[in-house]
Amino acid sequence: MSVGTTIRRLRESQGKTQKEIADLLNVDRRTYAKWEEEAAEVKSSLVPNLAEIFGVEIADLYKNDKNIEIKDSFKDNNNNNTNTVVIILTDKELTEKFLDLFNNSLKNSSKE
């Protein structure tokens, strides 16, 4: 799944150029442009950097939702007891296994 449309929309909403974002990622502007055009996939190691640059959650980059909430900060808030885990899985079979395990874990914890 490509993030091209989403990163284009986020970049434009922030009034930034492709070159500005490419420079922040240390990639060539043409490479970044290919991502937005969906002519190439974003290197998975750069996805967290994109999320940070645009102030969104990683999962938001993969949504087709036009109303992505831009976060003020990703800093931990000591006033809540939630934990955030970011996992980037690129293998379809492993992703399915992980989701099955996760869903089973949720089902088991809700029975208690």
What does this protein look like?
The chain is mainly alpha-helical and 112 residues long. It is 52% helix and 0% strand. It has helices spanning 4-13, 18-25, 29-36, 47-54, 58-61, 92-111. The model is unreliable at 72-83 (pLDDT under 50).
Question: What is the strand and helix layout of this fold?
Answer:
Elements: H1 4-13, H2 18-25, H3 29-36, H4 47-54, H5 58-61, H6 92-111
Helix pairs in contact: 2-3
Secondary-structure element string: HHHHHH
Mean pLDDT: 77
Shape: elongated
Secondary structure: helix percent: 40-55%
The tally of beta strands, per DSSP, is 0
- Count of alpha and pi helical runs: 6
Structural class: mainly alpha
Taken as a percent bin, the fraction of beta residues is: under 5%
Largest sheet: none
Q: Could you name the ranges where pLDDT drops below 50 across 5 or more consecutive residues? A: 72-83
Instruction: Determine the N-to-C terminus distance.
Output: 36 Å
Q: What radius of gyration results from the CA coordinates?
A: 16 Å
